[in-house]
Amino acid sequence: TWTMANVVEEQVERIRAQVGEGRALCALSGGVDSAVAAALVQRAIGDRLTCVYVDHGLMREGETEQIERDFVAVTGVDLRVVDAREQFLTALAGLADPEQKRKTIGREFIRVFEQAALDVVGDAKEHGESVDFLVQGTLYPDVVESGGGTGTANIKSHHNVGGLPEDLQFTLVEPLRTLFKDEVREVGLQLGLPESMVWRQPFPGPGLGIRIVGEVTRERLDVLRRADAIVRAELTAAGLDREIWQCPVVLLADVRSVGVQGDGRTYGHPVVLRPVSSEDAMTADWTRLPYDLLARVSTRITNEVPEVNRVVLDVTSKPPGTIEWE
Ligand code: XMP
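The line above is the sequence of GMP synthase [glutamine-hydrolyzing]; the predicted structure tokens follow.
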């Protein structure tokens, strides 16, 4: 019978047959697909896989740690975390335009990853080995859709790990090519990945960088990260993680409004909650979250994040709104 345990066994065999005694490289993004692909390949070839994770400083609270700690604990994978936080902040300084921010993040990402790939290959060479394989978390729908651009590509510059140095020649290893997302999640669970990783909702490559309307700074990232963590914790506590597609939290960093807290006037920033329901992110509806949940989130954010004095709900479907604000 076609069970996910069979799929794991079968793919492990295939990967071993393909890679033989060779070495492989895999870019982890924090997302489900790359994590499951890496875990499968690790099971097949052990420490002949090296994973690279670029920490651009635009991740949400706990995400980098989850990769560094939990993912490694479960898989035992050889992981290189590249701390590129300064580099990204420097590159983003002074930029407020959404497309400029997206392009800058994409460009820096490729730069950092290219260098990391060269380093891994260089280290292998020193030991008289080569890295010939690149692992990618391509899913069946990606295979079907490849070639045809999605409409959104014209609206926003989507960023994913794409380019590699031309002098690096890799053979692709794509162990998820026959699977749909729900199957990938099951494979992840089979491999022992934490539920929080396997059920992670979509999160854009440019991360929190496109959820701060205005310039991205360390302080603003810190404010947004704290507000976002509260929203995620409350959605999880309410058991809504699998019901909603995703819930971006957006910091309107250039907007301030007057408020009152205790005896004092405040002049803080609004955050926007953007809960959406969707099948494929091409269209979406705003999710009717329970009022008591919204109230709890609002109270907690304004109490626990002093820079924020207003919580606002986005009730726009897609179209005409997009899911992310930038
Ligand atoms: P929009 O904002 O276009 O988002 O309605 C649709 C879906 O795509 C995600 N998204 C991205 N994912 N790189 C990604 O990997 C990106 O640059 C990017 N921009 C948006 C968004 O979170 C939503 O799920």
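Note on the example: Residues 4-198 form a domain with the Rossmann fold fold (CATH 3.40.50.620). Residues 152, 156, 158-160, 202, 204-206, 246, 281, 318, 322-324 surround xanthosine-5'-monophosphate (CB under 6 Å).
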